[in-house]
Amino acid sequence: MASTANDHSPSQTRQGPKLPVLEREKLILNGRSYHWITERICGVLENRQPLLWWILFIPCALIAMIGVGLGLTYLVSTGVGVWGMSNRVFWGWDITNFVFWIGIGHAGTLISAVLFLTRQNWRTSINRAAEAMTIFAVMCAGIFPAFHVGRVWMAWFLAPIPNSNAIWQNFKSPLLWDVFAVSTYFTISLIFWYLGMVPDLATIRDRCKPGLRKALYGIFALGWRGGNRQWSHYEMAYLLLAALSTPLVLSVHSIVSFDFATSVVPGWHTTIFPPYFVAGAIFGGFAMVLTIMIPARALYGLQDLITMKHIDNMAKIILLTGTIVGYAYLMELFVAYYSGAKYEMDAFKFRITGPYWWAYVAMMSCNVLSPQFFWFKACRENLWVVLAVAMCVNVGMWFERFVIIVGTLARMFLPGDWKTYSPSWVEIMLFVGTIGMFLALFLLFLRFLPCINIAEVKWTLKESDPHHDDHHDHPDHGTEVVAAYQHELHAEGSADAKA
Amino acid sequence: MSTTRKRVYGYLAEFSSASALFKAAEKVRDAGFSKWDCHSPYPVHGLDGAMGMKRSILPWFVFCGGTLGLITGFSLAYFTQVEIYPTVVQSKPANFFTIPAFFPIMFELTILFSGFTTLFGLLGLMKLPRLNHPLFASRQFHRATDDAFFIAIEARDPKFSPEGTRRLLEDIGGKSIELVEEED
């Protein structure tokens, strides 16, 4: 099934000069066949899990149960006071965590939708895992505002349902917009994720022996047959969902930023917040994708499917969005200075020189300085460097939200409200619990669902183009394919390099 | 009353590659068949044209769904907030000029309704979920989701004939041609 490198070489019938066209780097290495792709991806969930899976899963699941399960039980049964909500910095870690997790959830939809619309075919190897990550991150995020309302059994008041008091929600409030945005985002992401998975679930169904397992995968595969009369509608649905998700993903974090920006609090009341939050969300989301995909790739031997090219692209996106975030940080400072507004200037002075200066330094160094390593090709190609930078960004993005929330609420207009904030143990427990929950859910995803989009990866192979061998019908494109410079630099990983 | 009679579903023929499938599909289309389909592990580019299929009508459903969502979002926010129970919070008025504040809700509900219409519209158009299908009785069809390309021509097609259709499939390069039967 391996394609030859000369499939696209033009015949000699055409006269005149030829345009040199850079050969595209292969998305799937070593000329793998369709069947190999099926075997390798299905093998992840059909074979016995490696020992490391259990070593990671058991502690993560325990942390999730203790942190989220026990933490929430204690919180609800005692009252939100134990969450450190009896002082002015009531948003503390809770909303920091909410914004942190929601931000992480943005890379999935970005990879699926925006990169789909812009025809970035490299997305096919990573979109499934990134979408799963989105779903799990939004689940983690949802916990915080739901319980932050105080009496969680009254959380249904957020839904626009007629109630006996005949009072409706305040539709002018960004907090209610947030309810709509986050719940829509979760629903649409889930639909997108599931629909994208239907053909792959059918692949697994067709490989199973008859039994419960086949029945379960069969039910979720909906009886998919891969007929073109299905694919035709399916592709249209996928395109529509991508087109719907693209503005949605931008809207969600914009609306999250409205929670801050529509207030009159110095340091929050800025128009730069929506794009700044969106760039930060993409930035943090890609870092989390790298953080979990690099180990998963090594653990399950997916190097031919998730290649260095994919990691290189993601590193470049991190560099780009990290630089946008850095620009936003500096612009925020400049505008505070340029506004001449005393409160605005004091708010930023407090962030930098106040008791939380270390959080500001952590934010700046992790988010702005650490991605700068990605200017260098050697750094983008060293997985340890990539992983270290991604971890830095994860930490830095959490600190960004901490700086914004705590660094502002600790110094509001009334000096009587001033407080040096430290989290309560329940706050810490819940945050650690959601990390465990996120990782445990992701490990379960690897165990039970196809972690790479099988159908779309097959689609990116050269022989999947029905016209790839039509030299007789289309003798000449007027172009000449020249080897990509990456191939010249790297004999490794390009078995088809025209040496 | 149990019978073991079987009804012919149609012929299933395998093709070696996406390009072979594409060229074969053009010939089946030109032979005038209507109840047939190409099965492939991934969507083959341009096969809609080769099969003589029209563009999917799903976008129209989604447009209607999205419009309904927009109207729902507007009505929900405007009528409850301005007409039924005017809510003045932080001395912000509730009147006609409040509408821009409802845009986020209108936008989100447009997307939400469109998303649901896409999901259910798609299932309707694909006639899924349908967990059982005669093709699943085939001994080779399971490879359609792995690495094989098939054309299935149904017996209920007016052009179908046991010999003629088989010969057509052989002529256009079909391999391991199989008569698929379903239990009556």
Keywords for this structure?
heterodimer; A: 499 residues; mainly alpha; 17 helices; disordered C terminus; B: 184 residues; alpha+beta; 5 helices
Q: What's the total helix number of chain A? A: 17
Lateral strand order in the biggest sheet of chain A:
1-2
Q: How large is the radius of gyration of chain A?
A: 25 Å
Helix-residue proportion of chain A? 55-70%
First and last CA, distance of chain A: 21 Å
Largest Cβ-defined interface: A-B, 69 and 72 residues
Strand order in the sheet with the most strands of chain B: 2-3-1-4
Total DSSP helices of chain B: 5
Return Rg of chain B in Å.
25 Å
Low-confidence stretches of chain A: 1-12, 491-499
Written as H for each helix and E for each strand, in order along the chain, the element string of chain B is: EHEHHHEHE
The mean pLDDT of chain B is 87
Beta strands of chain B, count: 4
The proportion of residues in beta strands of chain A is under 5%
Shape of chain B: elongated
Distance between the termini of chain B: 12 Å
Order of secondary-structure elements of chain A: EHHHHHHHHHHHHHHHHEH
Class per helix and strand makeup of chain B: alpha+beta
User: How would you state the average pLDDT of chain A, rounded?
Assistant: 85
How many strands, what sense, and barrel or not for the largest sheet of chain B?
4 strands, antiparallel
